[in-house]
Amino acid sequence: MKRFDRGTLLFFGVALAFILTIQVLISLNLLGDFWVTLLRIGAVMAIVSIGLNLIYGFNGQFSLGQWGFFAIGAYTAADITYRWANDQSASGLVIVLLVTLFVGLSFGISSKLVARARGLDPLSSFFLYLVLVILAAIIAVFVGRLLINPFTSFLIMLPGWLSMQIVFILAVLLAGIVSAEVSYLFGMPVLSLGSDYFGIATLGFTIIVKVLLDNSDTMFGLVEMKGARGMIGIPKIGSWLWIAFFLLAVIVITRNLLHSSTGRAIVSVREDELAAKAMGIDVAKQKILAFVLGSLFAGLAGGLYAHINGFLHPNTFNFIKSFDPMIIVVFGGLGSISGTVIAAFGWALVLEGVLRLVLPQGFETWRFVVYPLLLLVMMLLRPKGLMGGFEFPYLRQILPPLPKGLQKARIEQPSQVEETSAGD
Fold first, then answer.
1. How far does the chain reach from its first CA to its final CA, in angstroms?
2. CA-to-CA distance for 238 and 308, rounded, in angstroms?
3. The predicted structure's pLDDT at residue 160
């Protein structure tokens, strides 16, 4: 009963009631496709922004690369489901699965080699990791080609709807893992930079990803992605229930992480790096952990987003759009999960919904003027964001209880104990 207190039951009760109410409205055709799409996009943006809030709001690392990892996740998942839906082939699923496994093993081997070779600078370590990653990817592709037919045969034996759902879920999960592995490799040399320089490096990463997507059909031979023309034929199976489930899972994972000793170490880096080092905290480890987890969430969100409209274009992932998650995080409040979720839904419903419908015909683009003005007014009136440091009870950090001796003393001499606690 202690684990399921009033705040926990209230949070999950309200969340499930909201999710099921929206699903009932969708099933009864009482909610139009336009608003359903906006709700799904809002949930996806909430997942991306929670990941960025973990990197920037809780860990203090200014990053503009979230949109690049979002793009990687979107195209990874789309390629896997496209091959299954259109070619009845599990080639994308098998190759990506083995590449992630082999690259993960190469990271473990590389870390042991770096630990033995003391005194390696970040660039030398990065080069060692990169060489082993390339070798692991080549081996994975070779082995994967031998396993494509058995996997395909197994999935074909299943009912069509079931095999499609299995491929979809695995594609989304693998999209997150691919983004996490890329962020781990990218983060090693750049996380040693200062916050501003790190932000510029991540912005450059987003631009590089967009350019690679423009030429994905010619550089990598991925003809189905069609490069700058845009990828079509992606199955539209990103339902509201699946997206809402992933959003709820991300919220719970982030909450539990932040309430753990690891989460407190992550936040301590934001507060004061020198003090964190003095307390024995591995600052570099906490930075890379927050960056990888935030990128994992971005990849998951990208995999879900790819299956909403069934179409992807590289222009969707240009560097201008990379500011959207940052705006949502600042609008909702740095270090506030509740504010990030509310701001993400507000961003989708107000910018793409209400303003588009309220503004006169021919003036729809003025919503990109109204929206920044609203953000400017909000920042002047509430610099800490929409929610500030507020969290819903379930998400709020609960301090450990006082020792019995202090509890007894507080009852007898409350003012003296409060002064002692404040001094500690």
1. 32
2. 5
3. 87
Detail the DSSP E strand segments found in 126-226. none
SS (H, E, C) 197-213: HHHHHHHHHHHHHHHHH
What local confidence, expressed as pLDDT, does residue 1 receive? 43
What is the model's pTM? Answer: 0.90
CA separation (Å) from 352 to 25, 37, 46, 364? 20, 10, 15, 9
Residues of the chain with pLDDT under 50: 1-2, 406-407, 409-410, 414-424
How far are the Cα atoms of 146, 178, 213, 224 from residue 87, in angstroms, in the given order?
18, 23, 22, 11
- The b/e string for 249-271 (b: 16+ C-beta within 10 A; e otherwise) is ebbeebbebbeeeebebbbbbbe
Residue in the block written with tokens 């093993």: 105
> Residue 370 corresponds to which tokens in the numbers above?
């109204």
Which amino acid, 54?
Answer: L
SS3 28: coil
Q: How many CB atoms lie within 10 A of CB 97?
A: 21
DSSP symbol at 402: P
- Which residues does residue 231 pair with via DSSP β-bridges, in sequence order? 312
Query: Do residues 80 and 170 touch, judged by C-beta distance below 8 A?
Result: yes
Residues 195/94, Cβ–Cβ less than 8 Å: no
pLDDT one-digit tens code per residue, 245-300: 999 999 999 999 999 989 999 999 888 888 888 888 888 889 999 999 999 999 99
Instruction: Provide CB contacts within 8 A for 170, sequence distance 6+.
Output: 80, 93, 97
**E-state strands within 58-193:** none
With tokens 């209880």, the residue in question is: 401
**Rounded Cα distance, 53 and 322, in Å:** 14
The CA radius of gyration of the chain, in Å to the nearest whole number, is 23
Phi/psi for 231 (5° steps) reads: -95, 125
What torsion, rounded to 10 degrees, do the Cα atoms 298, 322, 304, 251 define?
A: 50
Where do we find the tokens 């404040």?
Answer: 422
pLDDT in tens, 165-174: 999 999 999 9
Residues 6+ apart with CB under 8 A from 315: none
